[in-house]
Design a protein that fits this description.
The chain contains four helices and no strands. By secondary structure, it is mainly α. It has a domain of 85 residues. Helix 1 packs antiparallel against helix 2, helix 1 packs parallel to helix 3 and helix 2 packs across helix 3. The radius of gyration is 18 Å and the shape is globular. The longest helix has 24 residues.
């Protein structure tokens, strides 16, 4: 017989947290670079590097968010794609707004464009890689 104060173990919540951890960590990395002074960035003066970095950051974020949704659903649905687009895209817009308050940084519509381009590419790659199994 089980003791009264002994509760059954439920790992469902822990699995969700663990599944979202890479996405949250990557979002934190993006945030850290977004609020860092621009003069300390390596390659900050290289032409078009900013656009390439934004694109790459959000490709990775989109793939990680799709992967996070895998813990709840094994089937890629339009809803998951839209949630990924809204979640990652909203984060990209929020980061740009935050940058407008950071000295030596500025918000840019082109950065938002490359964020969304990266998200769409990341969703496409994620569909091929993650849901191919």
């Amino acid at each position: 017989m089980r003791a009264v104060n002994q509760l059954p173990k439920n790992n469902a919540g822990r699995g969700r947290i663990k599944g979202w951890m890479p996405s949250v960590v990557w979002a934190g990395i993006i945030f850290t670079f977004a609020v860092a002074p621009c003069d300390n960035m390596p390659l900050a003066n290289v032409s078009h590097i900013d656009s390439i970095v934004h694109f790459a950051e959000y490709v990775i974020l989109a793939i990680l968010v799709l992967r996070s949704f895998l813990h709840r659903s094994k089937v890629l649905s339009v809803k998951i794609v839209l949630f990924t687009l809204i979640l990652a895209g909203g984060y990209g817009i929020l980061i740009e707004l935050i940058q407008s308050f950071v000295p030596s940084r500025s918000a840019s519509g082109m950065d938002v464009f490359f964020n969304f381009a990266g998200i769409i590419f990341g969703i496409t790659v994620g569909k091929v890689v993650l849901w191919r199994r």
